[in-house]
Amino acid sequence: MVSPEREPLHDEVEVDECWIGGLEPDHKGRAPSEKTLVAVAIEVRGQGSGRLRLAPVADASGSTLQAFVYASVAPGAIVHTDGWRSYNKIATRGYEHRPRSQRTARPDDDPILPRAHRAISNLKIWLAGTHRGVSREHLPVYLDEYVFRHNRRKTPMAAFQTLLGLSAQHAPSTYTQITTHAA
To answer: CB 3.0-4.6 Å disulfide test: which of 9, 10, 28, 54 passes with 143?
Structure first.
């Protein structure tokens, strides 16, 4: 469901990460987990949101999260992130980085990364409600489906035609190809 010609996100983008997976009562922050860390990038379109990108990532290190930004967002874009230090070097690659720390935010400030957090909430609700949960090995395919649906949510007939066109361009995927998707 991923178009090989898709363009990177541009203009103004919110970037964050979240954990997807089952319950872990003692899990804290970005610590290693049985859950899967997913990077999120979403375009800012006024009060609403534009196109979305999601990808499972190995960890929350600078090299991993920066690689996600470079692959998902066009240079020259304004990139909003939380205060996580792993994003600090993206400004050196032609992005205007605007971090906002959640720790220093005041109650009367605008919410930090509202579009990214809305996309994360909607993704988790969709996974739990539609699929009743997803295994780590199948998560990348479900993320691709969610991105496809989100990015075409206003044009359902065009989405169907796009899906037909994409499926005609690709050979069928084997189960092994689906479950060995690169993280």
So the answer is: 54
